[in-house]
Recover the amino acids of this structure.
């Protein structure tokens, strides 16, 4: 059994938060019992004496006795109570730990207890800082000063209120007797150490996002409540089971494997940014970094999922597949992911795209899946939804995992990457340096910018897509016309593998294959590339009426090709010089000499209406684009690979 | 013509008086709410008792009366500020008062909710409940605070005597007041600016002549050494 879903857990499991708060409060109240609770002593200060101080060792002893645990655990428990703010230290107030000696602590008043119910307000913090400022010798520390400045900026509209309230609170506090005043000041200070921790420390109350409901509150026993319990238990019953020996074994194996890679369990090189505020670790491990770190590369060998989920790893794998000429598998997998996680509105288009690119007979990047899966998939594509391609995707995934992954790990590409991978040295920071790091903290790139960068990256990759990547198993029925349409969608939205044929380099024309002159093709390629994005549309009207014969002759003379033609011609089954035309001619009334369209299979038809004598015509790319656009528009009589889910009625008549 | 001029002068004077009234009431409200907070801090601690809770109720009622009056007057001030003679500056002053009052109201509401929660947790109905009060080191001291509350004067307090709700209803009433005010008058919060610069309050409070020691120095009495300003890495 393998541990899955370690990275992207999209499940909505209810996670109770801070149940420890309620339990801690119970313990704290127990400590107050005059007979069985903690014994307190008075704290002697210069000016006065304050009761109810407790020593650290007393707390630990009491906890150990109460819960029957050893001293170490009692100490951790005690430190937790201090970290939450239920008990605060009287000396060394910024370090929220329990010291097992005679250092003094005091209980926090319930007003200042941590609670999830009422959030900690910035207004209160601003008032507190203003009060500190008012005291004659009140000096705000560096981080407090920063907070103060920030709050002054963002709460400017109520700043007068804040200052006024601070003054009033100060005056009100002065009304109390001296010892009580000292106690109150200590309490307030302790409260803010917990909730606005000094740099280098983390607040124990930092528990992540707030839930909509308080997990500690009691829920009313409504019918809805019971219904949810029923649904939950029904689903629990349906869950597949695993023996605990197996699952525990899997957990142990997972921990052993990933132990060295966890930034908190073991040393993180060069330094752990969460602790030292130095972001080198993150910069070195960015998604699109040139040279990955050794640890990262090692993680790729753990499992195929690890390799794919890491962007850099995936890039490496893509490079390897490119060299092996089986890039279409990864491209298909990525396209399926894009479909699964994309917008609902685009599902239909994407599904069509994928079908035409990867699944249809004669598709340019045809993937090899078994017949049954293909049948199921094509059937499902009639009514495409997010998970329609799951069986095919799984099949391809397992194919890559079992076959390509192993070879990848032995390949020179991978070995080269391993050799080049860097291993940074550990960097220890001194105290002042840590302060510097804290001050130099900056927010990371905004997600909007990251997304734009991602899209630019994808567009760049799409522009460089290389259809010398022949699929090994190219179209099995070469004499059929294949629609190698151009994508009309902006390249940014589709994953790079989907944008296929618009800018294709080197494809020798069928004629040149015969004549073996690649120079012509190269010239063609340059012309083809010069055309740029097919997004610019030429008017449809004029093309259709052009005489087909004249057109094909002209093309013949110019010499050019389309990738599909190349595929077809290079396929083992096609030996005839009569290569396949990739052009699907719009059938018009002025074309008497057409072959009747052929019906292949029950599900889809590919209409072939090429006059036999015009089989070979390398096509001038501009015309090609216009033609394709015309055909794509589905004008009268336009033919294309008809996906099974499209209606056949409009094309039947002209067939 | 001249009567109109005279009328507008009269209006201006009236509005100025009303604003002054509101400002004084705002200060009074601040005093009362900060005293309330001092009292609420002792809830659930060893200093808690029926005296404390009674004083809290009194303070609460006083605050409520001030809030009611202030909200009424502010609404009046800002809703019929339409005609031009008041001028932009007067409007700004009124808006500032509005924003300050709403902030004070929100702040007081959060204190009330906290107090409500604490009173629920430490009901003090029986003698045994006193055993579970937290020994915080505070013994007493709310008498002077209560006196301070009693000394608060607001312009309309003597005039209006209305019923005093219990805590839950009080919170509900204030919430309703807050939302009503926000709906009735559209005031852009961000247009109000602070009259003081950051840090202007530093050391500027009167009555501070008695050498106020900082808390660190006070706590030093035990012989605990001063730790450096930046602290160590570990927390828990």
């Amino acid at each position: 059994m393998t541990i899955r879903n370690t990275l992207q857990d999209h499940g909505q499991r209810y996670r109770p938060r801070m149940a420890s708060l309620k339990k801690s409060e119970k313990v704290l109240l127990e400590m107050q019992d005059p007979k069985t609770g903690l014994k307190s002593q008075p704290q002697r200060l210069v000016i006065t004496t304050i009761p109810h101080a407790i020593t650290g060792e007393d707390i630990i002893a009491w906890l150990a006795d109460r819960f029957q645990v050893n001293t170490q655990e009692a100490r951790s428990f005690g430190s937790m109570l201090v970290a939450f703010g239920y008990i605060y230290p009287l000396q060394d107030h910024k370090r929220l730990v329990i010291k097992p000696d005679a250092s003094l602590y005091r209980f926090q008043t319930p007003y200042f207890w941590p609670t999830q119910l009422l959030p900690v307000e910035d207004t209160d913090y601003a008032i507190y800082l203003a009060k500190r400022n008012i005291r004659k010798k009140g000096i705000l520390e560096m981080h407090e000063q920063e907070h103060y400045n920030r709050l002054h900026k963002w709460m400017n509209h109520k700043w007068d209120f804040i200052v006024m309230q601070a003054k009033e609170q100060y005056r009100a506090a002065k009304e109390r007797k001296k010892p009580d005043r000292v106690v109150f000041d200590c309490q307030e200070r302790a409260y803010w150490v917990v909730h606005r921790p000094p740099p280098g420390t983390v607040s124990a109350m930092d528990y992540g996002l707030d839930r909509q409901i308080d997990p500690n509150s009691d829920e009313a026993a409504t019918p809805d409540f019971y219904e949810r319990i029923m649904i939950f238990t029904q689903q629990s019953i349906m869950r597949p089971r695993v023996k605990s020996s197996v699952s525990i074994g899997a957990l142990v194996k997972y921990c052993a494997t990933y132990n060295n890679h966890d930034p908190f369990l073991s040393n993180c090189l060069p330094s752990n940014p969460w602790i030292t505020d130095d972001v080198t670790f993150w910069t070195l491990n960015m998604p699109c970094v040139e040279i990955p770190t050794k640890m990262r590369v090692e993680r790729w060998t753990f499992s195929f999922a690890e390799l794919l989920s890491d962007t850099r790893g995936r890039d490496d794998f893509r490079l390897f597949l490119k060299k092996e000429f089986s890039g279409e598998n990864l491209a298909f997998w990525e396209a399926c992911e894009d479909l699964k996680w994309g917008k609902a509105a685009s599902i239909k288009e994407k599904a069509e795209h994928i079908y035409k690119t990867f699944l249809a007979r004669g598709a340019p990047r045809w993937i090899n899946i078994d017949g049954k899966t293909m049948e199921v998939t094509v059937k499902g594509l009639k009514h495409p939804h997010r998970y329609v391609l799951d069986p095919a995707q799984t099949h391809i995934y397992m194919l890559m995992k079992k076959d390509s992954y192993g070879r990848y790990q032995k390949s020179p590409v991978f070995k080269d990457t391993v050799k080049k991978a860097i291993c940074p040295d550990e960097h220890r920071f001194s105290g002042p340096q840590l302060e510097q790091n804290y001050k130099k903290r900056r927010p990371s790139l905004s997600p909007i910018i990251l997304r734009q960068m991602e899209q630019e990256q994808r567009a760049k990759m799409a522009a460089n897509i290389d259809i010398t990547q022949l699929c090994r198993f190219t179209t099995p029925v070469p004499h059929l016309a294949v629609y190698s349409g151009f994508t009309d969608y902006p390249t940014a939205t589709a994953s790079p593998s989907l944008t296929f044929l618009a800018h294709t380099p080197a494809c020798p024309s069928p004629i040149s294959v015969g004549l073996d002159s690649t120079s012509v093709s190269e010239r063609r390629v340059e012309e083809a590339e010069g055309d740029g994005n097919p997004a610019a549309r030429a008017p449809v009207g004029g093309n259709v009426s052009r005489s087909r014969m004249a057109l094909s002759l002209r093309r013949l003379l110019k010499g050019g090709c389309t990738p599909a033609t190349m595929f077809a011609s290079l396929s083992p089954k096609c030996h005839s010089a009569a290569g396949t035309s990739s052009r699907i001619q719009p059938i018009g009334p002025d074309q008497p000499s057409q072959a009747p369209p052929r019906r292949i299979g029950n599900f889809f038809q590919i209409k072939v209406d090429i006059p036999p004598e015009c089989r070979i015509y390398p096509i001038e790319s501009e015309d090609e684009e216009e033609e394709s656009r015309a055909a794509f528009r589905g004008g009268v009589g336009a033919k294309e690979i008809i996906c099974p889910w499209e209606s056949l009625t409009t094309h039947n008549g002209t067939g | 013509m001249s009567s109109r001029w005279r009328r507008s002068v009269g209006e201006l004077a009236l509005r100025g008086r009303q604003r002054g009234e509101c400002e004084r009431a705002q200060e009074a409200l601040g005093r009362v709410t900060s005293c309330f907070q001092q009292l609420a801090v002792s809830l659930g601690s060893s200093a808690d008792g029926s005296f404390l809770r009674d004083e809290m109720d009194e303070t609460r009622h006083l605050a409520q009366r001030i809030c009611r009056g202030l909200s009424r007057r502010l609404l009046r001030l800002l809703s019929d500020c339409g005609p031009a003679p008041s001028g932009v500056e007067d409007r700004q002053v009124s808006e500032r008062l509005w924003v300050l009052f709403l902030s004070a109201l929100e702040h007081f509401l959060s204190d009330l909710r906290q107090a409500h929660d604490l009173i629920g947790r430490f009901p003090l109905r029986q003698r045994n409940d006193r055993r579970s009060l937290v020994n915080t080191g505070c013994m007493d001291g709310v008498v002077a605070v209560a006196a301070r509350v009693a000394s608060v004067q607001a312009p309309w307090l003597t005039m209006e005597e209305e019923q005093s709700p219990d805590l839950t209803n009080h919170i509900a009433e204030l919430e309703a007041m807050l939302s009503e005010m926000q709906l009735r008058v559209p005031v852009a919060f961000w247009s109000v600016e602070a009259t003081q610069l950051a840090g202007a309050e530093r050391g500027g409070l009167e009555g501070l002549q008695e050498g106020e020691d900082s808390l660190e120095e006070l706590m030093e009495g035990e012989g605990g050494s001063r730790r450096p300003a930046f602290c160590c890495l570990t927390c828990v």
In short: Confidence is low (pLDDT under 50) at residues 207-211, 221-236 of chain B. Chain B touches chain A through 86 residues (CB under 8 Å). Helices of chain B lie at 2-41, 50-79, 87-121, 142-150, 167-184, 215-219.
